[in-house]
Amino acid sequence: MILMSATFLILAAITLVGACAAMMLRGLVHCALAVAIAFAGLGTLYLNLGAQFLGLAQLLVYVGAIAVLIVFVILLTRGGDSDSPPLPRAVLPLTGLLVAGCIFAVLAWAVFHSFAVHPAGPPAAPSTVRELGTVLMDSYVLPLEVIGLMLTAALIGAVIIAMKEKQDTQ
Amino acid sequence: MTPLAGCLLVSSMLFAIGLAGALTRKNTILVLVGIELMLNAANLNFVAFWRFGPHTGASTGMIFGLFSIGVAAAEAAVGLALILAVYRHTKTTDLSQLTGGQR
Description:
The structure holds 2 protein chains of 2 kinds.
Chain A: H1 6-24, H2 28-49, H3 52-76, H4 91-113, H5 129-138, H6 141-162
Chain B: H1 3-24, H2 28-52, H3 60-90, H4 95-98
Helix pairs in contact in B: 1-2, 2-3
């Protein structure tokens, strides 16, 4: 049995602590910064696993775009100064935590009690960006075009939704 | 613990954290952040199965992860635009006030 490497454990700890902080901190801006840390940790985790292009894409898209977008929306809605307490003593949050804990327990049980159908072969060779681009342009060209079309439609739709209405007829 | 099991465990922890946040937080932006964390957990699963799976050499897992990142980016943009539109009408991002329940 190959044990986990120390770098993997450190990066996983950074990611999980960032995610926990993003979900438990009180201030919204602190939450946005913590989730940026979690996204960056996850990107370096991809790099550690050998997926170079995916790790860099994760860093660019999530840390560079989505975290900044979240900060923009927080500032536009002026929610940075106050927020409801993160986990108020009520029935509903307790139920949510219970559901999440149960799902984690089921997933962890499945991970530990599943047997490997295939013997663990040698780990995959890290694919270079060149062959990734070749595959992307060769056999995955239709999904690539569909993703491009969907991104264009989603961004145009987002601009239309968020655009200020000209005359509000109530 | 094999590396694959470790990756899957980290991924399920990330999913549970995101689910707990999406279920318990009252702010719509933080609910969206929780959903993003859950999507990222799924992405980590793709990368883990690509790295330690039986079919070495095929880069299917990485391609799927790449497409998943694209879909998540579109989802975040549309979701945040919806939050802005709702905020413009109701002047709040609090979910308990948006549902008209407890005030």
